[in-house]
Amino acid sequence: MNRFNFLIVFCLSVTSYAQDLTISGTVVDDANQPIPYANAVLYTSDESKVINGSSTNDEGQFSIGNLALGEYVVKLSFIGFESVSTPISLTKTTDVGVIILKIASETLGEVTVNSKKPKFTKQADRMIFNVANTALVEGSMLDVLKSTPGVLVLDDNIMVKNSSPTVYINDRKVNLSASELAMLLDASSANSIQKIEVITSPSAIYDASSGIVLKIVMTKNLIMGYRGSVLAKYTQGVYPRYDGGLSQFYKTNKINLNLNYSYKHSKVNRNNLDEINYQENNIATEFWRTDLDRNTTTKTHNANLNFDYYINDNNTLSLSSNVLYLPFYNYKTKGNTFVKDLQGVDDYNFNSFNFSEDKKHNIGTDLDYKHSFKNGAQFLVNTHYTTYDYNRGQAVNSDYFFQNSASNFSTGFNTVNNQSTDIFSVKLDYQLPINDTSNLALGIKTSNINTDSDVVQFDVDQSTGSQTINNANTDVFNYDESVFAGYINYDKSWDKWSVVVGLRLEQTNIDGFSPVSNLNTGQDYLDWFPTFNVTWQAFEKANLYVGFNKYIERPDYTDLNPFNFFLNDNIIVTGNPNLKPSITTYSTIGTSINDSFTIEAYYKTVSNQINELPIQDNANNFLIYSQSNIKNVREYGLDFLTDLYISNKYSVFFLTSFFNHDFDINFNNQSYNFNQWSNFSQISSSFNMLKDNSLAVNLTVAYTSKFLQGTILGESILNSNLSLSKKVLNNKGVVSLMFADLFNQQDFGARSKFANQNNYSYHNIDNRYFKLGFSYKFGNTTLQTNERTKSLKERERLGM
């Protein structure tokens, strides 16, 4: 009886195992790009009956489970491509590897599609902009962002819905300042970008400080073997610029390696016109007009490493690193200032010269471990470390000229500034697919930022050249920030409904200390950040969605740093050690129709919004740029988006957003209201030309009306970019040409005028240029993949 029972249990176990096998694989096109939403259908060996089916995800991956031992045929298909059928003798869970679908000959005759049009997708929480194999990726990452729906790049500041987003590259946060981020993206080739996701309502998985997320997703190396590419570009603005780079990919069954390097030599010109009306008792006393000419020369090295080691089917170890190294970052600023009295008569004028020489590096490294369980759950560990080092030497000289030359004099000072920052974090995530329609994710994270910085100012005697330390403008600032976070996130789909709901808790501790001035600033707070998105498929081709999330912007070490940085004798940039964190709530409701039209309304509130404000010190004739909190900010708007595929060669994307920005500010014990309606509109047209579609063209034009940025009212701007790319040398080479600021309307002015404040600045930026590029792909990876596929079929036939 015992043996009989054992035999029954054994047979049931074998039967259960035999019914729990899986077939998986990855589907790509002939350009090695994933094909999402392709059909994967499993038939009996004679193809007379359908057993099961699935579709590929965004990465082109499919999985068909709950299968028994036997002989099958898996058929992969997608509209416009030739179907591929692969026989499989299933004796164990099998990965069929990479399957390449070719363009269907009956669709295109002898035409081969070499270039694609950008594809736009709107979801409840994000906009997805697929740009792989389009004309846009022949520029830099920053160039692609300039053509991304809803993204405004203004003077190298990236903006989405009047906010600065957090940039992630392949799910890894980029820890850089706004100017350094622009340098990194401008020096990085876009050749490997698959898509840009603009996430306006990120889930609880993201840091609460992420706010709006710009997620740059790079293409994965899906094909076995070695391949690579080289590129070179020449840019002509006011001055010429040069850059070049190398990308290499290598993949085997055990490892996946990607190494990128780029170098950029750049000289950029900038002219500013600044006007200040100094006042006393609300009556103008002096008018200052300054013409500035600034040249910035940089030599930028950028390297990126991604390495995956597949320990076995269930365990993967990954190492990635980004290096930004600037051994040479110099700028020279020449200023000529005229001071007039109330009658418009010149009182005096002065010339200033500011020479700054910087060196900096930023190295960010991630070590990841992923374990996959048999039930589909995943356990992920991420450790991150960033080291940042910055050194600046500055020399400023000014010469003052009066009507009586006997009153002429000169001033001068030098400063030395050093900053060292270390960022360390550990994150643990657990992701569980509860069933086919629901998933649970939870995790914890701890992070620490430590910064030590100092500045020493020397006053220079213009007659002798001797230097004396200026103790009033010499200081040290040490900053330490620790954040501990935990989250839970759940998503569920029904027949017509889907919901994503999450909650994140974050405990923050901040200590800032200046031993020279004996200034001690500290913050200690716990806050919770809920998020949810609900979508209702009301009709076959129309849905309705609502969303809500809450996020935080913490003042960082630069914002809190009390140092005074003098750009000349009268312009000061300083931090504010009394800044409070900013809390934002963001709500949306919208509808998408026929996958082509979207209408969305949003409402946003911000408490203690952090803005850099230009404040006039009318008593001492100083203009001070300092971070400040604006107590309550309200913004609401209506967006309309459409993405139309007019033909197989032409598509158009259009977005327009009307929004109102309203807030009150307390200044000198009085309240002032700021209210402004604004419009942001963007149109992007993509063309495929020539019989073989090897010429791709993209034209993007974006208009921004008058807009508020803190107390500053910016003038309207028209951005425009034209990109062309032509495949050559049997599709291995690409010649690209880009024209920026076609209509010469990207320069802008801005004024701050309230109370006894009245200053204006006009920015003439070196953003009108053309860029000529060439890239070439090498490596015979397709042949190696075909050999591997053939070998796999032979093993299957032999029962291996």
Automatic annotation (TrEMBL):
Transmembrane spans: none
Pfam families, per database record: CarboxypepD_reg (PF13620), OMP_b-brl_3 (PF14905)
Residue ranges occupied by any Outer membrane protein beta-barrel domain in the UniProt entry: 371-776
Keyword Signal: yes
Subcellular location, record wording: Cell outer membrane
Keywords, sorted A to Z: Cell outer membrane, Membrane, Receptor, Signal
First and last residue of the signal peptide: 1-18
GO cellular component: cell outer membrane
Transmembrane recorded as keyword: no
Official protein name in the record: Outer membrane receptor proteins, mostly Fe transport
Species: Olleya namhaensis
